[in-house]
């Protein structure tokens, strides 16, 4: 089954130019065919094509059903890598696993200080459709580490830090029905100043294991662990 994305559903009942072209020109859908749509807000729409136009495919909604919602909020904040392709890969896989929000941190050791969200949002939409989900995670603009950590509230707030002597593993802190925020640092890791700032803001310092991980790999490890508790 192919999913089509229209964020303005149910008010808007036609596909945009790109989705219309894919539906009519590529997939050869015709008037009267049944298609499945999502709004990025957790809803699936079973619909029938009423006008099979490759620039503005119109449809009527036949049925609406809601996606199963997790009993807790999963938020990951990560320092963007210098190579944007690696960050696109992270966003894609994080959406496939399932996450509610992704934030980007400007840290002391960050190699990328400017981040445009357009390409990442397209990757997120594609991954949502590919993994048959109806909820699009909220992607937050790049913020300084200090600004971010002082304004966050969650039942569990963790900072993943490369400290091979730390016996506290993230998996041992996670539990059901607990809003969770996890911070992932840049390749040079968080600075000592940032670690102390996070502690003062109520964050717990946790480990992701005995291996030294790339930023995007650490991010996926954290997202995966959060999804084990559903």
What does this structure look like?
This protein has 230 residues and is an alpha/beta fold. The chain has two domains: 3-66, Ribosomal Protein L25, Chain P, CATH 2.40.240.20; 74-227, SPOUT methyltransferase, trefoil knot domain (Alpha/beta knot). It has helices at 17-26, 84-97, 118-130, 145-149, 192-200, 215-227, and strands at residues 3-5, 34-38, 43-51, 58-66, 74-78, 101-106, 138-144, 156-160, 180-184, 204-206. Strand 6 (101-106), helix 3 (118-130) and strand 7 form a beta-alpha-beta unit. Helix 2 (84-97) runs parallel beside helix 3 and helix 2 (84-97) packs parallel to helix 6 (215-227).
What is this structure's SSE topology?
Blueprint: E1 3-5, H1 17-26, E2 34-38, E3 43-51, E4 58-66, E5 74-78, H2 84-97, E6 101-106, H3 118-130, E7 138-144, H4 145-149, E8 156-160, E9 180-184, H5 192-200, E10 204-206, H6 215-227
Parallel strand pairs: 1-2, 5-6, 5-9, 6-7, 8-9, 8-10
Antiparallel strand pairs: 2-3, 3-4
